[in-house]
Amino acid sequence: MVVVKTEGLTKEYRTGFWRTRVRVLHDLSLEVQQGEVFGYLGPNGAGKTTTLKLLLGLIYPTAGRAWILGKDVFDVAVKAQVGFLPENPYFYDYLTGREFLDFYGHLFGVPYRERRQRIEALLQLVGLGKAGDLQLRKYSKGMLQRVGLAQALINDPQLIILDEPTSGLDPVGRKQVRDLILDLKARGKTVFFSTHIVPDVELICDRVGIIDGGRLARVGSVDDLVGSEVESIEITVSGLEESLWDQVAARSIRPPVRRAERVVFAVKTEKEAAQVIELLLGRGASIVAVQPHRQRLEDVFLREVAGRE
Amino acid sequence: MRGVSVLWAGLFAVALVASVLVGRSLEVRGGGARLPDDPLYLPSATFLRYASLGYRHMLADFMWIRATQYFGSQLEARTRFQGRYQFLFPMLDLATSLDPQYIHAYRFGGLLLIVVRQYENAISLYEKGYASNPGRWEMPHDLGRLYYLDLKDYAKALQWWKITNELPGRPEYIPRFIPLLYFEAGQREIAIALWLEMYQATDNALIRHMIRGRLESFGVKVGE
Amino acid sequence: MSRIWVIALNTFKEAVRDRILYAILAFATAMIGSTFVLATIGAGSGEKIIRDIGLGFISLFGTLIAIFIGIGLVYKEIDRRTIYTIVSKPIHRYQFVLGKYLGLTLTLFVNVIIMTWALMGLIYIGEGLWDFRLFAASGMILLELMVITGIAILFSAFSTPTLSAIFTLSLFAIGRLLDDLRLFGEQYAGDVGRAVIRAVYYLLPNLGRFNISGEVVHGLPLSEVVSPMAVVYGFLYVTALLALTAVIFQNKDFR
Q1: What is the Cα–Cα distance from C10 to C82, expressed in whole angstroms?
Q2: Domain with A251 in it: what CATH number?
Q3: Among candidates B49, B55, B104 on the partner chain, residue whose Cβ is nearest the Cβ of C45
Q4: Which residues on chain B are in Cβ contact (under 8 Å) with C59?
Q5: How many domains does chain B divide into?
Q6: What SS3 class is residue C28?
Q7: Can you give the three-state secondary structure of chain B, one letter per residue?
Q8: What CATH number is attached to the domain comprising A188?
Q9: Would the pTM of this model clear 0.90, i.e. be above it?
């Protein structure tokens, strides 16, 4: 089932003194399937947040349409199934954690008793069990992020939309967020999140959409994008004779690196690897490691983005 | 940086003391021809009406308080200067322009004006009060009293007290004074006729006694 | 409907936890207490003075609260982006506007009630009686505050706090002087001018219609002083303001 669908979504702003038209989103069409984790990847200013805002009814499209769970995004009722965490969220800092979640739960129409249960469960889930009665103005940034996640889940939504959920977090924090997303997927939910941090996408996403300059450049699963071809083979050698250094350097696609008494270099194909290994073995060197590398998502990403400039 | 803080603190103390001393010298030098409570400038009623943005009743109260304070200070100052109370009427006029239904200001203010012998102003104030509050007995009553007691103008007093007599809530001594005023105004016959009427209308022994005494002093005998 | 109430209650909570509110309230109560002092030098006019000044301060401070919290009602949410997590919920945009408005009205209501009771307490101490007529005056003051709040929230939806404050204060002043201004203008205008003035006169809020404090203090009978039509006018005008605010808010892009 298609959970999110956009068709020809376009957004123009009028900015500046002369009200010049600036197009920030061009003809965006994509789909997100039920139960998948979709990573919306793009550099800053690519139009990721604009897309999310269009989906949530925060801004209106200049052209095109969008649907969530089969209903037009302007249908206010459909938002009952959606949870949203904006980037760098600001919240009512005069509320305590519990009051904050209670407010949103109430807004969703979650009945009182169920609200109380969910609030406690969510506070535990995001690791804020002890901070429930503290005013939000006393929360750290990480804590705000976590209570924001809790707010996005208070209605037990089918679709969770997150805008840059890991930005500004330390590696531990990022892992926690990734684990949470995977946990949501395990419960059958759909997660659509935007980010500019490639490894996060690579690690947990089923499918990826790369957006740049307001246009969708590539869409597909991580494997599809990255390809299964081997891009290079990294060889680690010890006991290399000095005289062989130039030959190795000539074959290597990047300058060899010395690490203690070992040398690391890379060749392009398996065939070349076999040749070099045979040569080195013949001269008395030992092969410590042979490591094939596939393309990384980051490379794909950088290539797409660089191509625009 | 504690040293710098101490310097600033010292400057503060010195500046404060200096400003107090200078202020005191200003106080002594001032005064002069002006009495301490004279307002240099009274804004017009229209201006204040606009400027008060609808809070005019409050302003009227302030102006009334100001007027009484002015009166009091002029009273005190009389021993040192010639208090002339020249701003008393303007202040009262302003207060009652801002709040035309301010009965108390008309009445008490009028009294103050009478005390300082500004009879024209008092009449002016009372008449204004009557014009703005034609249904109130207080205004014509005070006018009548003024004419009777201070100005000895019995014809005018009678005129105003006849008006007062028709108004609701007027004191009960008014009708008893009407014949007397007729008498003082030289209309004996009407006076006597009214008294006789009153005599017949009442059961009150004391009043009958008073009326009989009065009539007899005019040489009119009353039957039992 | 309960969604509106959620927002309203939250707005009320925010106002109540805003320390400025307490400062104003304390100041206002102190002012009303000082009228006690003024009354003793009032040379016999004490009763009128207490009531005039007491009601005057209730109105003045209520107006300040209405304007200075009102102009931030919508603006703050947009500017601080707290609006994102609300509009993305299953709530109509007009419900948000209504909720904010009701929240501030509730705050004003509580303030006016407290201050009126404080005034009545002072009067009881001074005169030994409870003057319940004051509630009629307070009620109309509250109605005027509701109109002012409506104006403030309207500007709040599209303008910065500084501009909103200027516009709202201006409309407040004009609204209170509207009858006088109309007379003044008609004296000097030609026929066309007069028609324009009349049109503008009807469009702008006539706040003088809610100003019955003077008459109440003068002791006039309430049946003469309180005009049901004025109450209707007030509610209609508020409805118009809120509807316009809803339209503006509905079409806004939250960048």
Answers
A1: 13
A2: 3.30.70.120
A3: B104
A4: 55
A5: 2
A6: helix
A7: CHHHHHHHHHHHHHHHHHHHHHHHHHHHHCCCCCCCCCCCCCCCHHHHHHHCCCCHHHHHHHHHHHHHHHHHHHHHHCCCCCCCCCCHHHHHHHHHHHCCCCHHHHHHHHHHHHHCCCHHHHHHHHHHHHHHCCCCCHHHHHHHHHHHHHCCCHHHHHHHHHHHHHCCCCCCCHHHHHHHHHHHCCCHHHHHHHHHHHHHHCCCHHHHHHHHHHHHHCCCCCCC
A8: 3.40.50.300
A9: no
Asked if residue C255 belongs to a domain, the reply is no
**Among partner residues C13, C88, C251, which is closest to A56 by beta-carbon distance?**
C88
**Together in a domain, A235 and A287:** yes
Owner of token pair 């305590």: A96
Interior/surface letters C127-163, b for 16+ CB within 10 angstroms, e for the rest: eeeebebbbbbbbbbbbbbbbbbbbbbbbbbebeeee
For residue C237, what are the contacts with CB-CB under 8 A and spacing of at least 6? C147, C150, C205
Flag whether C51 is in a domain: yes
In a domain, B66, yes or no: yes
Give the one of B54, B104, B105 whose C-beta lies nearest to C208's C-beta. B54
How many other CB atoms sit within 10 Å of the CB of residue C96?
A: 23
Are A85 and A208 members of one domain? yes
Where a domain ends, among A194, A226, A258? A226
Inter-chain CB proximity B57 and C45 less than 8 Å: no
Range of the domain at B122: 43-133
Print pLDDT tens along chain B (224 aa): 677 788 888 888 888 888 888 877 766 554 444 455 566 677 888 888 888 888 899 889 988 988 888 888 877 766 555 567 888 899 999 999 999 999 999 999 999 999 888 999 999 999 999 999 999 999 999 999 999 988 989 889 999 999 999 999 998 888 888 888 888 888 888 888 888 888 887 777 887 888 888 888 877 777 65
Among the listed residues B33, C253, C88, the one whose alpha carbon sits nearest the alpha carbon of residue A78: C88
A222 and A246, same domain (yes or no):
no
Q: Which domain holds residue A289?
A: 230-297
Q: Examine residue B14 and state whether it is found in any structural domain, yes or no.
A: no
Q: Do residues B55 and B125 both lie within one domain?
A: yes
Place of tokens 């005013």: A135
Q: Are residues A75 and A187 in the same domain?
A: yes
Tell me if A244 sits within 8 A of A283, measured CB to CB: yes
Domain count, chain C: 1
Domain span at C87: 2-250
Among B residues 29-58, those touching chain C with beta carbons less than 8 Å apart: 49-50, 53-58
Domain co-membership, B119 together with B166: no
Helix (H) or strand (E) holding A289: strand A286-294
Hey, are the CB atoms on C81 and A80 less than 8 Å from each other? no
**How far, in Å, CA of A78 to CA of A104, rounded?**
16
As a whole number of angstroms, the distance between CA A65 and CA A7 comes to: 5
Q: Are residues B175 and B93 in the same domain?
A: no
Asked if residue B117 and residue B63 are part of one domain, the reply reads: yes
Count how many domains chain A has: 2
